[in-house]
Amino acid sequence: MIHAIAAITRLAQQCAPEIATEAVVPLVVTESGGDDLAININKGPRVRAASIPDGAALVRRYMAAGYTVDVGLAQVNSANFARLGVSVEQAFDPCTNLRLASSMLRAGYGLAIQHYTGLDAISATYSLYNTGTLTRGFRNGYVGRVWSTASGMGTIQTPPPIPGLRSAAAPTASPAEPAVDNDNWVVGQTASNAVEVFK
User: Phi and psi (nearest 5°) for 110?
Assistant: First the structure.
């Protein structure tokens, strides 16, 4: 099923309440266009399953051949399934998929705030989600696509500059911040023209 933005927003509020919908919904729209049966075989084709059983069989076939596969609304990567404690079928469930994405975003943000602040930390979190690194998602255009989606949806007025793309120089990391309880931090809209990090 392909979900409209309003439906994705409701699902995010219900299934991933610890992350602001303003952060999750643009990521989902960028990743799958709201298609809970979307499948991306990394270094392979992007396909749509006819059903969850069909999709699970396809994902297992590609995993057995050595591929990693992105699944569902938030395109959660199969390399995370065992660590997150879900089966392939469960990863297709929209609510479970958003819960998994939320868990990964929270963990990514916990790492990102050790090196970046404000919107740069959110950008680094998106980069980690896409590439597993703090910066590769800046260079491959992913972070810019998520921010452009957010801007197009009206979540933010204009996409922020991407760290490291402001100049040819590599991004400058801020000194590590003191340890904090990252579960109390969320990403979200606090004003009509800004997305901020708040506790």
Answer: -60, -35
- pLDDT for 45 equals 84
Distance, in Å, from the CA atom of 149 to the CA atom of 131, rounded to the nearest integer, reads: 18
Residue linked to tokens 């959110």? 122
Dist CA 124 CA 132 (whole Å): 10
**SS3 sequence, 72-140?**
CCCCEEHHHHHHHCCCHHHHHCHHHHHHHHHHHHHHHHHHHCCCCCHHHHHHHHHHHHHHCCCCHHHHC
Measured in whole angstroms, how far is the alpha carbon of residue 164 from the centre of its chain?
A: 20
pTM value is 0.81
CB atoms within 10 A of CB 75: 23
Q: What is the dihedral of CA 129, 97, 194, 171, to 10 degrees?
A: 0
CA distance 181 to 29: 29
Residue found under tokens 């065992």: 82
Residue range 3-57, pLDDT digits in tens: 999 999 999 999 999 999 999 999 999 999 999 999 999 998 888 899 999 999 9
